[in-house]
């Protein structure tokens, strides 16, 4: 009997042959059609961008080559989003996200990511745009992975930010030597990644420098601001880096990923902001 490990290695070699050619990337939703979610994050209606209304869409299927953990973001250290068993068939909505992930549907319809090396793909089939559910091509808050996750500016920001996952929260901290508080972490990451140059400031200062954007227009790499997380005269009291799929990367306790969908963060949410770059 051939072991699962050997099957996975064989499958990776097969995938290298099957996946040659053009890479496809699409804007994707947080949830897929057929699930209970019919509105965007926070209850806002989904809006179909006019540019996407007439575009055909290429859809693939994939077969898992081994048992594998799904991730909620296309990153190895992102939160888990479920498990897939060897031989399971999945609908694939984008390939080569970050160069090595495919976007699939997890249990319950939530978007998830599987290593490309663990999935054997069929050739794409074309589905007419006239038959598409708007959820599939929504390009605002609920659609981001392909183009955004392969954006060089965002990848530089994320690469720097991930270096400090696990560092403790330290009030007033602003360097790796001292560790960080929320604004110190964001300021350091912006400067060291080369994405944006800023003096050390607090969450309110970062908000004041940002252009406020609507929730449905937010994309990975934007900043997300919260209010009332501690006693201060400032309106904005916490800042994080938005990474998509309802997650942020921030100086929690410790620094790491956090879900914006918890009751606490939903109650304290203030705004999304974007720094001109």
TrEMBL record:
InterPro entries: NLP_P60_dom (IPR000064), Papain-like_cys_pep_sf (IPR038765), Peptidase_C40 (IPR051202). GO terms for biological process: proteolysis. Coiled coil: none annotated. Residues 151-276 form the NlpC/P60 domain. GO terms for molecular function: cysteine-type peptidase activity. The keyword Hydrolase applies. Keywords: Hydrolase, Protease, Thiol protease. The keyword Protease applies. Gene3D superfamilies: endopeptidase domain like (from Nostoc punctiforme). PANTHER family: BIFUNCTIONAL MURAMIDASE_DL-ENDOPEPTIDASE CWLT, MUREIN DD-ENDOPEPTIDASE MEPH-RELATED. Belongs to the peptidase C40 family. This is NlpC/P60 family protein. It comes from Christensenella minuta.
């Amino acid at each position: 009997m051939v072991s699962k490990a050997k099957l996975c290695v064989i499958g990776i070699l097969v995938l290298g042959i099957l996946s040659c050619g053009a890479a496809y990337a699409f804007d994707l939703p947080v949830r897929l059609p057929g699930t209970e979610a019919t509105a965007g994050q926070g209850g806002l209606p989904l809006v179909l961008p006019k540019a996407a209304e007439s575009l055909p869409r290429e859809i693939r299927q994939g077969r898992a080559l081994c048992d594998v953990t799904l991730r909620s973001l296309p990153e190895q250290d992102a939160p888990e989003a479920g498990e897939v068993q060897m031989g399971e068939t999945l609908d694939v909505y984008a390939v080569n996200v970050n160069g090595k992930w495919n976007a699939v549907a997890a249990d319950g319809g939530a978007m998830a990511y599987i290593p490309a090396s663990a999935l054997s793909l069929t050739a794409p089939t074309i589905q007419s745009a006239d038959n598409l559910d708007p959820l599939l091509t929504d390009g605002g808050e609920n659609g981001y992975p392909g183009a955004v996750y392969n954006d060089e500016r965002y990848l530089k920001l994320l690469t720097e930010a991930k270096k400090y996952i696990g560092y403790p929260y330290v009030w007033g901290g602003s360097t790796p030597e001292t560790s960080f508080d929320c604004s110190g972490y964001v300021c350091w990451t912006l400067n060291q990644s080369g994405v944006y140059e800023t003096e050390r400031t607090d969450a309110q200062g970062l908000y004041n420098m940002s252009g406020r954007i609507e929730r449905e227009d937010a994309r990975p790499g934007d900043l997300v601001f919260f209010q009332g997380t501690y006693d201060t005269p400032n309106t904005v009291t916490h800042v994080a880096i938005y990474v998509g799929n309802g997650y942020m990367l921030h100086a929690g306790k410790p620094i790491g990923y956090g879900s914006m969908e918890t009751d606490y963060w939903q109650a304290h949410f203030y705004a999304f902001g974007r720094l001109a770059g």
